[in-house]
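Input record (one chain):
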Amino acid sequence: MLGVIPYAGFSFYTYETCKKLHYDHFDGRRPAPWERMMFGAVAGVIGQTSSYPLDIVRRRLQVGGIQGEVYTGGIINILMKVYREEGLIHGVFKGLSLNWVKGPIAVGISFTLFDVTQSALRQFLMKDRDSTRQ
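The corresponding structure, as predicted from the sequence alone:
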């Protein structure tokens, strides 16, 4: 659960920031679906990268007993131990590159579908509301 908070926070923040920057830069033009997909991909990379160290901690705690390794202390202590023994890239961010392949695609599709569906529903509901007033 702890890993979801930074992942979702950074992903949503990045996606919405990209949309706002686009809106401001292009004089209020809404982003096209392919642009939304790119914003989602960027959000996916940032979200994955920000929360990945917590995944490392979770995995180490899950398989540590099986491998005979005992991890004690909190999240920071475990991350420091992994960093000291294995380094930043080969320890704390080990395996992240595979997540960079699948994550941006999934997040890009999810955010794009959400926005397009939300927009379509708003148009439908506004049309329905306008027709009932007449």
